[in-house]
Specification:
This protein is α+β, with helices and mostly antiparallel strands. It has 14 helices and 31 strands.
């Protein structure tokens, strides 16, 4: 039985690459949770793709025991959270399961956009925040200035910030003492009916669905019958345990503790994140507030390069969605690409990660169509349809107007790049809302159409600021604008995968850029190929890809000219016939490169 006053639950939050996972590694190492020979970098990141890219995608938890300077032993439950804006949903739900946060800030980089976003989430969840300045061993570190910047920009006291270097292990004992002394213990009663929060769930091939829980009140033991209040289902508990990062079964979980349970649940779908778990009898009276489900914002089609692999793709997607509740999919067909799936993602990084996992873990070659967002199409008869795929756009004569999603983007950028960033946002139809300074860095707030951000806004932002800008966004709702569907025709055949929604004023430029790019990307055929961009029946841009020619007159030595003419005429007729029946193969690289538009 654990004394609740000796428990501390906390999350580590920070901007990308400020050292969350490294700090988690050092805390695990310092407390001897994992034997020295088993230690490895990014200990809590379990996916290959996380280790490879050096990012955290899933929030992971671990339980550590620490003997403090006061002689008492404390139980610390740590959650390592992702830093990317695409996975902000993971961060928000992790916050609700704990009472405090370690805010990690890079002492050489200072406050970034995601630092702000994550601190505000922590404050929303009523967290006690301990500021940690990391990387103080770097020559460029300026801990005093960064502490001032934290106070100016975020408005939290950083005078007692803990100075550490997570890589070398300097100051890790100070962090552990700060967790014990400055973060609050959880509240909860042991004798009350069981009330636990379902923080996360994933599928394990041997155990079925594993559920990460945070006990608020009551006690959870093996053999208990539990009831999920949201779904109304009842299950017997097979095992209860904690993560030290490996799973370790224990007898019971008491109030304030975090751990896992398995209860022969077959599908991750049956466990809604944020649900309240209670005993079947007696049940607790009120459910926890829970979370709003995550809304996909970016949609794209995934098609197998070889149509014979469609069944493999279906199976792979259903397996991936077992573990990722924020990834949605439905079947679709395309004239050019055959059968595939229309999938919804939280952002472009999420899309890349899912695509990489499908190609790598299931060995399927994929074609990815242009990412698009959901538009609201208001019809003349008063109905409103959600448009996920530009290829499904109804006839414009029936359409009253189209609304597109807008976002509120916060960009933090060093002063010398400010002009380029403002120009980039103006080019993307942005509306400036705010511009303030924190030291030598500008904080720009823009209202931008999500459609313009989805393509390559982040890449462009990084390149115009040499990698120094940071970017975060929140959804703001829908607004009407003059949008049209632009189609690409190759050899007079429309290519579904390259249809996009564009603003009418940008259509010509976007169309011209697209056809010029395709002209370089499509290999030459034996016949000439017209490549056109069209809005409705009107062609707005055209390029012609010339044919490869065989020299049919090579075998004629001198002689009568009419013989050569006859051969050339025969070739011309053959080319014309070829163009009529010829099929143009557009390689996969052409799709991806054509969709990455540069200004």
């Amino acid at each position: 039985m654990t004394d609740i006053s000796k428990i501390r639950n906390f999350a580590i939050v920070a901007h990308i690459d400020h050292g969350k996972s490294t700090l988690a590694d050092r805390l695990i190492q310092q407390t001897g949770t994992v034997a020295e020979r088993d230690m490895e970098a990014q200990m809590l990141d379990t996916m290959d793709i996380e280790k490879e890219r050096g990012i955290t995608i899933k929030a992971n938890s671990v339980r550590i025991e620490y003997k403090a300077n006061d002689g008492e032993t404390y139980i610390l439950n740590l959650i390592d959270t992702p830093g990317h804006v695409d996975f902000a949903y993971e961060v928000s739900r992790s916050m609700r399961a704990v009472e405090g946060s370690l805010l990690v800030v890079d002492a050489s980089q200072g406050v970034e956009a995601q630092t702000l976003a994550n601190v505000y989430q922590a404050l929303d969840a009523d967290h006690e925040i301990v500021t940690v300045l990391n990387k103080i061993d770097l020559p460029a570190a300026e801990p005093e200035q960064v502490a001032e910047q934290i106070e100016d920009v975020i408005g939290i006291d950083a005078s007692d910030a803990v100075m550490i270097s997570a890589k070398t292990g300097i100051g890790i004992d100070l962090v552990l003492e700060a967790i014990v002394n400055r973060l609050p213990a959880p509240k909860g009663t042991r004798d009350a009916p069981l009330k636990a929060m379902l923080v996360d769930s994933w599928y394990d091939a041997y155990l079925g669905v594993v559920v990460l829980v945070r006990i608020i009140d009551g006690v959870l033991k093996k053999g208990d019958k539990i009831h999920l209040m949201n779904t109304g289902a009842t299950y017997p508990v097979d095992r209860v345990g904690v993560f030290r990062p490996q799973m370790e079964p224990i007898d019971e979980l008491g109030p304030g503790e975090m751990g896992y349970l398995t209860a022969s649940i077959k599908q991750v779908r049956d466990t809604a994140v944020g649900d309240t778990i209670t005993h079947d009898k007696p049940r607790c009276e009120t459910a926890l507030p829970g979370f709003a489900p995550s809304q996909p914002v970016v949609f794209c089609g995934l098609f197998p390069v070889d149509n014979a692999e469609f069944e493999d793709l279906r199976e792979a997607i259903s397996k991936l969605s077992l573990n990722d509740a924020s990834f949605s999919h439905e079947m679709e067909t395309s004239a050019a690409l055959g059968f595939g799936f229309r999938c919804g993602f939280l952002g472009l990084l999420h899309l890349e990660v899912i695509r990489d996992r499908l190609e790598r873990e299931y060995d399927i070659d994929l074609i990815t169509t242009a990412p698009s967002v959901i538009y609201h199409v208001h019809m003349r008869d008063g109905t409103v349809m959600d448009l996920h795929n530009p290829a499904d756009m109804p006839d414009m004569t029936h359409v009253e107007h189209i609304e597109e999603p807008r976002i509120k983007a916060t960009i933090l950028v060093p002063d010398e790049y400010l002009g380029d960033v403002l120009k980039l946002c103006q080019d993307r139809r942005g509306i400036q809302l705010d511009l303030t300074y924190a030291g030598n860095r500008a904080m720009v707030v823009y209202d931008l159409p999500l459609n313009e951000v989805v393509f390559d806004f982040y890449d462009r932002l990084k390149s115009v600021t040499k990698g120094y800008a940071s970017f975060d966004y929140t959804m703001e709702g829908y607004r009407e604008d003059f949008l049209v569907k632009m189609q690409v025709l190759v050899n007079d055949e429309p290519v579904d995968a390259l249809s996009t929604m564009v603003h009418r004023d940008r259509a010509e430029a976007r169309g011209r850029a697209m056809v010029e790019k395709l002209k370089d990307l499509i290999p030459r055929h034996m016949f000439k190929i017209p490549i056109q961009a069209a809005i409705g029946g009107r062609i707005i841009a055209r390029e012609t890809l010339s044919a490869m020619r065989k020299d049919v007159t090579a075998k004629c030595y001198g002689g009568d000219i009419s013989r050569k003419k006859k051969l050339l005429d025969k070739q011309k007729k053959g080319k014309k016939k070829m163009r009529q029946f010829g099929k143009v193969d557009i390689p996969q690289e052409a799709f991806i490169s054509a969709l990455k538009m540069d200004n």
